[in-house]
Amino acid sequence: MKLVEQRQERCEELSELLKDTLILHGDGTDVRTLLEEGIAEMDAVVTVTDDEATNILAALLAKEQGAKKVMALIKRPQLLHLLPHLGIDAAIGPRTSPPVSF
């Protein structure tokens, strides 16, 4: 499993907590980073930032670059109907348990 985080200090914290996870310091919306990390070979990508727009954008970029399945954290249920039209396979959120698949 790989986790991409922009903040260096958070990367350091996560590397101590998640011993079986490769923590990468970078931007999940940077195509070069996605390609370097082998996004096309990934079975699934889950985007979980505090910003829904960033989650949607990162999921779309991952899908476009070859990720087989993408899931985005969405907090506003009124956005759910848009996701299948965009190619996002599933959504997770505070009111969607289990994840909503499209």
Describe the structure.
There is one protein chain. This protein has 102 residues and is of the alpha/beta class. It has four helices and six strands; from the N terminus they run βαβαβαβαββ. It has helices at 8-17, 31-36, 52-64, 83-86, and strands at residues 2-5, 22-25, 44-47, 69-73, 90-93, 96-101. Strand 5 (90-93) and strand 6 form a beta hairpin. It is globular. The relative contact order is 0.14. The model has no long low-confidence stretch (mean pLDDT 92).
Largest sheet: 4 strands, mixed
User: Judging from the principal axes of the Cα atoms, what is the shape?
Assistant: globular
CATH-assigned homologous superfamily: NAD(P)-binding Rossmann-like Domain
How much of the sequence lies in strands comes to 25-35%
In terms of per-residue confidence, which ranges show pLDDT below 50 for 5 or more consecutive residues? none
Task: State the helicity in percent bands.
Answer: 25-40%
CA-atom Rg in angstroms? 13 Å
Say how many strands there are.
6
Head-to-tail CA distance between termini: 24 Å
Order of helices and strands: EHEHEHEHEE
State the name of the first-level CATH class: Alpha Beta
Strand order of the largest sheet: 3-4-5-6
Task: Chart the SSEs and their pairings.
Elements: E1 2-5, H1 8-17, E2 22-25, H2 31-36, E3 44-47, H3 52-64, E4 69-73, H4 83-86, E5 90-93, E6 96-101
Parallel strand pairs: 1-2, 3-4, 4-5
Antiparallel strand pairs: 5-6
